[in-house]
Write a structure and sequence with these properties.
By secondary structure, the chain is an alpha/beta fold. The chain is built from 10 helices and 11 strands. The strands form 2 sheets. The chain has a 6-stranded parallel sheet with strand order 2-1-3-4-5-6. Strands 8-7-9-10-11 form a 5-stranded parallel sheet, sandwiched between helices. Helix 4 links the parallel strand 5 and strand 6.
C-alpha cells in the first residue's frame, strides 16, 4: 500500500517515528514537510507538490498530520487533481478544538483523533466532517527503552513543562510534583520548562530514554481524565522506558491492566503510597515495566498504527 504523508519531519517530532513505522509495516511512503514547503513557496507550492507527488506516486491515500496550513481553498484545489482519499490526523488536544479545523473538516475523507469519546465526536458534528475515526498515538520501542545497565540515581522522573492552566490537570500536576519533591524519603527529577530553574532541559527521543533510564519510576498526568481513551504519546514513551505511574483516565482499563502493566493513582496520598512501595521493590518495578512493554509492542507501536491506517483505508476506500 502507498501513502503520501504530509507532516513535519524535524528529528524529535512524532512524524519521524510514524514514518518509520509505516516502512516497517511494508508501506511505500513519500513524505512532504509542509512547513518547509510553506516557508519557501507558500500555499501554491503546497498544492503543486501534493498534486505532483499524487500523479507520479499514485498513493492509495494521503495522510496529513495536524495540517494548520491547509485551508478549505487549498484542499479544494488539491481535490481537483487528486483522486486518493485525504485523511487528517490531529493528535493534540486542548480545552476546545482549534478554530482552523472548523472550515476544513468537511473536505477531508476522514478526521482521525486519538480519543474514542462520543461527546468529543458530537462536538465536531456541527462542522460536518465526513467521518470522525479513532486513531491513537503510539511509541517506537526501539528508541524508547530502558537501559538497565545504567544506575538508577533518582526515585521519580517527571517529563513535562509547567504550563499552569493550559490543560484541566495542569495545576494538579504542578502542585503534586512540587509536593512530592518535598517528601523527605523520595527523590524527584523534573524535565521541562517553567519550573523556576529547578528542572532539567526538555529531552526527546533517545535522550528522553537515557534520562528515563536513570529513574526507578516515571510519573505521568493525563491532560484530561474525562475523555475516553485519550492520552498523549508521552504515556506510551514513558511506559516503554520504565515503570510508569499515571493518573487514571476514562477508559484506560481497556488499554492497560492497572497494577500489572502500570500503576494508577487518583489522589496525592495514593501516588505517594505507590511510589514508596515501588522504590523499595526492584523486582516489582521490573515486572511492571516488562509487562507494560509487552503490551506496547502488541498494541501501541507506530507499526501497529500503520496497519490500522490500512484498515481505515479499506473501510472507506472508493468503490
Amino acid at each position: 500500500m502507498r501513502c503520501l504523508y504530509v507532516g513535519v519531519f524535524s528529528p524529535h517530532c512524532s512524524d519521524v517515528f510514524r514514518l518509520k513505522g509505516m516502512h516497517e509495516a511494508g508501506m511505500e511512503v513519500r513524505a512532504l514537510d509542509f512547513r518547509q514547503i510553506w516557508s519557501q513557496r507558500a500555499a501554491q507550492g503546497l498544492v503543486n507538490d501534493i498534486v505532483h507527488c499524487s500523479i507520479t506516486f499514485d498513493p492509495h491515500f494521503i495522510l496529513i498530520n495536524k495540517g494548520e496550513r491547509f485551508t478549505a481553498e487549498i484542499l479544494k484545489e488539491i481535490k481537483k487533481s487528486v483522486q486518493a482519499p485525504i485523511f487528517l490526523f490531529y493528535g493534540d488536544k486542548r480545552e476546545s478544538w482549534p478554530s482552523f479545523l472548523f472550515g476544513v473538516l468537511r473536505h477531508y475523507d476522514a478526521f482521525l483523533i486519538n480519543s474514542d469519546d462520543e461527546n468529543e465526536k458530537a462536538t465536531l458534528e456541527q462542522y460536518k466532517p465526513q467521518r470522525v475515526l479513532y486513531h491513537h498515538s503510539a511509541t517506537d520501542t526501539e528508541i524508547f527503552k530502558k537501559n538497565e545497565e545504567v544506575k538508577e540515581d533518582v526515585d521519580v522522573a517527571f517529563f513535562g513543562s509547567n504550563y499552569n492552566v493550559i490543560f484541566p490537570e495542569s495545576k494538579k500536576r504542578r502542585d503534586w510534583m512540587l509536593r512530592l519533591a518535598l517528601e523527605p524519603d523520595i527523590s524527584v527529577r523534573l524535565y521541562g520548562h517553567g519550573w523556576d530553574g529547578s528542572a532539567y532541559p526538555v529531552t526527546f527521543g533517545a535522550d528522553y530514554a537515557a534520562a528515563a533510564s536513570r529513574a526507578k519510576m516515571l510519573i505521568g498526568f493525563n491532560a484530561f481524565d474525562n475523555i475516553r481513551l485519550y492520552t498523549s504519546n508521552r504515556c506510551f514513551n514513558s511506559m516503554a522506558c520504565g515503570t510508569f505511574l499515571s493518573t487514571k483516565w476514562k477508559g484506560c482499563e481497556t488499554m492497560f491492566e492497572g497494577g500489572k502493566e502500570l500503576e494508577w493513582f487518583t489522589s496525592y496520598r495514593e501516588m505517594v503510597s505507590k511510589v514508596r512501595k515501588l522504590k523499595s521493590n526492584k523486582r516489582l518495578r521490573q515486572r511492571i515495566y516488562k509487562a507494560g512493554r509487552k503490551r506496547l509492542e502488541k498494541d501501541h507501536t507506530y507499526t501497529v498504527r500503520a496497519r490500522e491506517l490500512e484498515q481505515i483505508y479499506n473501510q472507506i476506500r472508493p468503490r
